Amino acid sequence: MNRSVLVSLLLLGAPALAETPAAASAPISAKARAVHESALIIDTHVDTPLRMLDEGFDLGSQPNGVGHLDLARARAGNLGAAFFSIWVEPKEFAGQYPHRALRLMDAVLQQVERHPDEMVLALSSKDIVAARSGKQKKLAALMGVEGGHAIQNDLGVLRDFYRLGARYMTLTWSNTNEWADSSGDINDAKVKHHGGLTDFGRDVVREMNRLGMLVDISHVADSTFFDVMKVTKAPVIASHSSARALTDHPRNMTDEMLKAVAANGGVVMVNFFSAFIDDDFRKAYAAMDAERKAATEKLEAQHKNEDAATRFRLSQAADFEWAAKVKRPPLEALINHIDHVAKVAGVDHVGLGSDFDGITSTPAGIDSVADLPRITEALMARGYTREQLHKILGGNLLRVFRETERVSRELRATPSAQR
Fold first, then answer.
1. Total-model pTM
2. Within 13 Å, how many C-alpha atoms sit on residue 91's CB side?
3. 363-371: average pLDDT
């Protein structure tokens, strides 16, 4: 998730769509469509819960060109499972992280209850597969907590989140918490850092292993990443990270880290945000930081007395306008990152973590979840086989989930692992 000071959902809208070249809107080939439709497609990071809670958005709403994800476009893109991000803004909700997280989880669960014929809550790898069986394929809805600060230094809260359906936790967001360093503020001298994980941070990883909760290392500092690899007994995931060798952003992973994830048996789910997959976009976007921050602060001051929904919508529009000032990269930029991870870590260790509904810009041709078949087609053009595509589109994540569940069963059967 990439956000301003206000809780802001960064949506894709008409100006960005106008940049899409004609080639990107061309029909998908029958061969690519057939391969795509035969796969179980899993996206490990969508930020739509903020829209559900703060905007009152309903997944069953008719597509209107706003946002990246709804049930109709999920069907069009053959999305099989999505991990809905439970992200708590660390400044606005200081002191009430668990409460805000519970509100977001409740928003997701309400959507499941509201649309029982089209989606189902998934709590296991078996549930994901079951949701896609039979004539009426349902969207398997899972939840992932984005940022370990949400547990407020309490393993009991971590366990409660798991009981309510959270199946991964990103150890940090862009903020360093009391037990793990983040890549987002690693160079900020005013922030107290730990050199990676603290002892409590290591306990968090161990408890996640015991519970069967996927350990997510997106957003963490490099030192935290390597500490995690020393502690975890289960494979890790990067729920929404790309390759630093191609785009020099601290949120991305170095080749050394990619190889470490492969050795661990984990999977890196590539992020779709333009600033993470294209260096030209990253530089141009970063060059506007000071001006964008000033404009955001002015907007906040002007509308500080408005209701939350109004401030949310205004923030959406402003953030979108800033992103639209920079030309979107071509689809090839995203494919290059998937291809790089597959070549460095291996095709068994790469997947998709779009960051849909949490980013300001996506590559040309990827305007919503309905456009996922374009990724399949582009990868086929690079020579990827049907079997390899099934792995990338969801099979690799499913394998890691199953192994995490196996490790959990083993640890729960060990008295010394009980708490």
1. 0.93
2. 7
3. 97
Give me the phi and psi of 20, to 5 degrees please.
-65, 120
Both tokens assigned to 22: 């004609």
Q: What is the pLDDT of residues 58-109, one digit of tens each?
A: 999 988 778 999 999 999 999 999 999 999 999 999 999 999 999 999 999 9
CA dist list (Å): 92 to 68, 88, 183, 255, 300: 25, 9, 20, 35, 13
The 10 Å CB-count burial string (b at 16+, else e) for 283-294 is: eebeeeeeebee
In this structure, what is the dihedral angle of CA atoms 27, 31, 36, 38, given to the nearest 10 degrees?
140
What 3-state class would DSSP assign to 166?
Answer: strand
Would you kindly state where each structural domain of the chain is located, as residue ranges? 14-412
H-assigned helices in 222-330 = 222-231, 255-264, 274-277, 279-287, 289-302, 308-323
- Kindly calculate the radius of gyration of the chain based on its CA atoms and give it in whole angstroms: 20
180-201: buried (b, 16+ CB within 10 Å) or exposed (e) per residue? bbbbbbbeeeeeebbebbbeeb
Q: What is the architecture of the domain spanning 14-412?
A: Alpha-Beta Barrel (3.20)
241 pLDDT more than 50: yes
Place of tokens 């049907």: 386
Cα torsion 322, 325, 331, 334 to 10°: value is: -50
Residues 225 and 176: their CA atoms lie apart, in Å, by 13
Sign of CA dihedral 256, 258, 262, 264: positive
Instruction: Please give the angle made by the CA atoms of 58, 60 and 65, to the nearest 5 degrees.
Output: 85
Distance CA 229, CA 235 (A): 9
Q: Is 28 helix (H, G, I), strand (E, B) or coil?
A: coil
> What single letter denotes the amino acid at residue 160?
D
In what helix (H) or strand (E) does residue 125 lie, and over which residues does it extend? helix 125-131
In three-state form (DSSP H/G/I as H, E/B as E, the rest C), the secondary structure along 370-383 is HHHHHHHHHHHHCC
CB 11 within 8 A of CB 320: yes
3-state helix, strand, coil in the chain (%, to 5): 50, 10, 40
Tokens (6 digits) for 146: 């984005």
Max CA separation in the chain (angstroms): 61
Phi/psi for 238 (5° steps) reads -110, 105
CA atoms within 13 A on the CB side of 128: 23
